[in-house]
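This follows on from our talk about sequence and fold. Please put the record directly below this note.
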Amino acid sequence: MIGYVTFGTNDMAKSAAFYDALLAEVGAKRAMEMDGFIAWGTSADRPMLAIIKPYDGQPATIGNGVMVALAADSPASVDRIYNKAIELGAKCEGPAGPRGPTFYAGYFRDLDGNKLDVFCMTAA
């Protein structure tokens, strides 16, 4: 069910070097990389760990930048789950839609402010 977990960072280069070395110890390597985001994994179908600059532009702190990502099987499922979260009172942190050529996601905060997203990988 969990697809990946993110940790906020204020120094992408320093954090990336740390996780490159640390996660190599478990056989993980960079699996995705975009401006302000790097994810490591052992394979595309296994959970990943990522570092990210917080979406809200505030400094990363313990908790700000941390997010649980829920894996879905299609963009339609992402839309359905994201819309249900909003319907239930979640706050939008980025509407469902494509993020790059092979990634589709919607971001939200639950009723307590915890950040989640629902995502799927798509064909390029």
Remarks:
- The chain has two helices and eight strands.
- The chain has one domain: 2-121.
